[in-house]
Amino acid sequence: MRSKMSISLTLVFFAFLGCRTLVRCAYQDDPFYYDKFPDGFLWSTATSSYQIEGGWNSSEKGENIWDRFTHTCCHIEDNSTGDVACDSYNKIQDDVQLLKSLGVSHYRFSISWSRIMADGTNATIKSGGIDYYNRLINALKKANIEPMVTLYHWDLPQALQDIGGWENELLVGYFNEYARTCFKRFGDRVKLWLTFNEPFVVVWVGLGFGAHAPGISDRPGEAPYKAAHTIIKSHAEAWHTYDNEFRSTQKGRISITLDSDWKGPKDPNSADDKAASERAMQFKLGWFANPIFKNGDYPDVMKELIANKSAEEGRSTSRLPEFTESEKLRIKGTFDFFGLNHYTTQLITTQYRSDKKPNYGSDMDAKESQDPSWQRAGSSWLYVVPWGLRALLNWIKDNYGNPELYITENGVSDRNASLQDDHRVEFYRNYINNVLKAIKKDGCNVKGYTAWSLMDNFEWAAGYTEKFGLHYVDFSDPARPRKAKKSAEFYKQLIKDNGFNAPTSASAPTVGPRHRASSVLFMVVTLLVKFLM
Ligand code: GBH
């Protein structure tokens, strides 16, 4: 009786106060939140080697899988290549100038493996490539910008693909040698490292359906699992190499960057949709995060579903490889923070496969769709759903013990050459506001944010048709001039303010004293109700 009364009392206050600090309302209904980010919050922007550098055969650089892929017809939408791209190989000063003007504290870029080791091994170390990254890192340090360096952003030396690529376990050793060389050569100045960028995309888009290099698509139920297995071990070994040989002197931190969409239940009130959403999250983010950030092994639901389907297909073993007990111990906890790339959201329902064809895509018994009201972008897969980022950050907090987290990519595309990119300003404003809410209202341990990308660049299979830049690049001009878009000005101001200043006009929605008073009142009542119950 008394508890029933307390519940109705609580409900009345929920209704009275609407979406307030202590009320769990739907993220999408939560109004814009004006506040600052915590002191020391890290602001960054990112690029990757193949997408910007060009100089594809300079300084004895070896061929990599993206050179091979783009030089072979017809994988790229506009038949373009990264041969010149933004010509960043010759434009260090220009790029650093853009970064200085933005006022970022950090710059995330990647090292091209085949620039450092032409065939991917110690036998072919190239001083020209090492020299390029030394000059870039020194220019950044001089400008007071901290480098955040990704070792592998998809451009595998072709010679290593020729022996089977990530499906060959020998790559664990080769990657470790490459990582060690980078720590040795650059670690005196680089204090933030990422082993892999988005291993999911490497194994699924590259080796599952083949839209990315090396373009393998004949075994979508096997190759991705096998390659992921090698990548997870490679990551773990490189982490241990840093931990054992470099951490005490270089005092940096190292992790991996995983990409994840938010895969929410289509009907949030349906238990079946919620279970499907959970499966989809575990099959995408959990595939890599569960071993590294949780227990050294794949998520239970993956092990179970893939084993069942493998048996159904008449196999004696699961298509999902197993880690040995000592491998699990070696993998578990190989992170110093959580690196996260995020762009978009899908709605998930259950769907069982109709055939017995082995395919990662149907192993999870889930189907995705989008809400028709969601705004589109220049990429067909990218729907603008700002609250999805907050939902995802909370899912990570709840599943992996609220690790320190850096958002290492977030951004939006268009197909315009316009500098008036208002839609991108809105995108950043709303996504970053959801990061702020995740920190301040939900207690997520987010330490930094990175905008993708510093400038328009080679967008993989889409070539130069999809643009993600804060800066416009004229790819028809051999000098590749860069120009700030409106979004660059917006990001610059946001960094300067370290958050969102409340609008001054009286009519604008604010988070003022009235809100604070109601929050306090609400807190008191909640405590009272809890006490009574
Ligand atoms: C990131 O991937 C990458 O890290 C970055 O290099 C890239 O430029 C940026 O996002 C923008 O895309 O259309 O079927 O070929 C984000 C994940 C992976 C999403 C590839 C789009 C294309 C699938 N992306 N995917 S398809």
UniProtKB/TrEMBL annotation:
GO terms for biological process: carbohydrate metabolic process. GO terms for molecular function: beta-glucosidase activity. It is an enzyme of class 3 (hydrolase). Keywords: Glycoprotein, Glycosidase, Hydrolase, Signal. The keyword Signal applies. SUPFAM superfamilies: (Trans)glycosidases. Its EC number is 3.2.1.21. Residues 1-25 form the signal peptide. The active site is at E409 (nucleophile). Homodimer. Belongs to the glycosyl hydrolase 1 family. This is beta-glucosidase. The gene is LOC106154276.
